[in-house]
Amino acid sequence: xxxxxxxxxxxxxxxESNWLMALSAAxxxxxxxxxxxLSPDELARVDIAIVANxxxxxxxxxxxxxxxxxxxxxxxxxxxELKGFSRPIVRLVDPDLARTMAEAVxxxxxxxxxxxxxxxxxxxxxxxxxxxxxxxxxxxVGLLGLGALGCAAARQLQLAGFAxxxxxxxxxxxxxxxxxxxxxxxxxxxxxxxxxxxxxPLTAETTGLLGAREFALLPANAGFINFGRGRIVKTLDLxxxxxxxxxxxxxxxxxxxxxxxxxxxxxxHPGVTVLPHISAPTNxxxxxxxxxxxxxxxxxxxxxxxxxxxxxGY
Length: 314
Description:
Largest sheet: 7 strands, parallel
Order of helices and strands: EHEHEHEHEHHEHEEHEHEHEEH
Helix content: 25-40%
Number of helices: 11
Structural class: alpha/beta
Strand content: 15-25%
Distance between the termini: 35 Å
Mean pLDDT: 96
C-alpha cells in the first residue's frame, strides 16, 4: 500500500483544514490526512509528518515515520518538546517569509525614526506640534541576526537610505552592512544603534540576551523592535529601561508567553507598541510549495533531508 503523509498540529480544526487544502493542492500525487482522522492501520503507513507545533505524543503514534517537515520557520518549541527525537526535523525556509519580515522591519523602523509614537500621543492630547526630523542616512539601524531574515531586512533598510549594522553569533560579511559578532561585537553594535531590531532565533545562547546592561549601552532616545522571540528579552529590564528613558519606544511582536496576558504592564505602557505576532505570518500557498518540493525530492531519491541541529537550536 502507498505511504501516507500525516498533518500533525495543535491548530484549530479550521486552521488545520486550511493547511490541509493548501498542502493537498501543492501535492496532488500524495495522500495527506490529519492525524486526527487516521485509523491504527493508516498510522502505520505514514512515513512523513508535516507539523505545526505538534503534540509529541502524536508523533509517537507513527511507528514508521522517517522524517518531519515543520510549517514554521521557528523551531524552538520543537527543540524543547522533542529532545531525543531521532528522525530529521526540517524547518521551513521560505523566501516569501523573508520578504514579509523585511517589509515589517522597514515599516516599523520608519514608524520609530519618524517619531510616530510621539505624534500618536500628541493627537490624544489635541496637541499640534512639529517635531525635529531625523533623516534615514542619519539613523543607524542595528540588526540582531544576519540569517535569511536579517539579510533581507538589511537590503530593504539600505534601499530606504538607512545606515545598517548587523550582529551574528559567528563572523559574517554582508554587502553594505557594518558587521559585528561575538560578545564584544554585540556591545559595540548596541552603542552605535539608534534603532535595534531583534530577529534572532531562541536558543540557549540567546535566551535572556538583552537585559538592563545591554539596554544601558544604547544611545539616547534609541528605539527597539523585537520580531525574534519574547524570551530573548528580559521584560522587566526593558520596562525599567523605558521608564528611565534609556529606550524611547519599543515595538514588540513576540512575548515570553503568547497570547500576551491581559494583566501585562506592556499593554498600557506609553512607550510600548504591542503587536499580536503578525510581523511575518507564514503564507500557506508559498509554504506548501516549498514543503511539496522537499517531499518530491525525497520521493525521487530516497535520501533523508538534513534536519535541524538540536544542540544549536535551529
